[in-house]
Amino acid sequence: MINSIEELKIFSTIFELKSIRKAADAHSLTSAAVSKRLIALENRLSSKLFYRTTRTLSPTHTGEKLYNHTQKLLSMTEEIEHDLDPTNTLKGKIKITASASFTQSFLLSVISGFLEKYPQINIEIISSDSLVDLTEQGIDLAIRHGPSRDSSLVGQKLLDSKRLLCASPDYLIRHGTPKSPVDLRRHKILTVGQESNWHFIKGGERTTIKLTPIFSSTLGDSVLGMAESGHGIALLSDWHIRNSVLNGQLKIVLDDWESDPSISINLLYPSRKNQSMVVKSFINYLKMRLADSSL
Asked: How far apart are CA 142 and CA 133, in angstroms?
């Protein structure tokens, strides 16, 4: 009934992308060739796997069941191939999306280390501050900040990222170092996005500071650059400012106060797609590097 593993891979791609044309592109085949393979599979199973119209493609009940079995089989096949490989070398491709700031400040160094460890893996990254459709673009992993608004995705929280107040040494020499959040009212403030208030907590004490920023940007890297250039105090994620603090471009201020709330870093992936060994290995490596990244 099932001719080959490749046949199941093509079926799975059709299922996930909901498009014969997109599946054909993903497998470097023509749409006619993919359609012919799908029809042959349906004929051998004596059952339709998809409902087709001129614009839509949706799985039948049989298609749903076959997809679930296929994911288990493909995962098992990958493990067998890896286990029997005399070099025991991890191979494959990962497609990742993450924000531009996170990519530049942290993720590229993680990818560099991962590729050194596994040189036969290929990684493609879509660096964007906009939300990207994972299924539409065939993305394996999304690294996002804050909770997901997309109920079709599943994932896990990697960690809570602390946001820290920071400024350049030159700025603090010229304007003084704040001793409490209240002192921020007389300082020049740099914000990411349209923040109007900063909230801080220390023990059981909470305080809110109303902001009138001299500079704001939706791009965290722009705010980081302004802070490094001595234009004011910014509230940025620990992973974002780590290198700047270590090389002396920025100093952390009011580190006895915590920004409230912290912002979680979450890993998301298509809910219907099992993780390959390559993806699982990258997740584990990412977790390890994140654990070592806090200030």
From this structure: 10
